[in-house]
Amino acid sequence: MHIAMRRDAGRLRTAAPAWNGAGTPWWQQLRETIEWHHTSEDDVLWPGLRHRDPDFDAQARELHDDHEELDAAMHAVSTAIAHRGDGLVRAAQTFEGVLRDHLRDEERIVFPVFERLGERAYLAEERKVVSSAPMRVMTHLQPWMFDQAPRRSVAHVAATIPPPVRLIGSTLLQRRYTRTLKGILK
What we know:
0% strand
């Protein structure tokens, strides 16, 4: 997910100077996905990691504060979009910087915890996070995460998705996702 977030922060920054409003549905979907992602971390993943690794508690508080800064940056982007793109270049640059810094810090803190837990425990926590997604986010996740992802990564993740869900994700949901990109990609 972090790869997709970084990719789309770059897409927003690139599109901002010539913003014409056509990318608004794309932005709304991205914002909803990121909000779900960090809310699920605060409400589902961090408590699970605290339970499994007591040393994680102090670090989780630092990440929660980052989420508040990220919310403010996303709000600034939404406000600029609501004002026909006025101020969007600056808001998009700020959003990208805040997001990249947050993801760097989160990965520095959380990835070692995942490694200590082992794959089975990590996947158990990840399933809880994914199952917390609202349907609108759930139907967006597979094509969004796989967009421009390396083939090996896609194959690895796809192997964990039940075949019927994988088929729907690579057909119907992929077409829907592609339509949202038309407003952001030139």
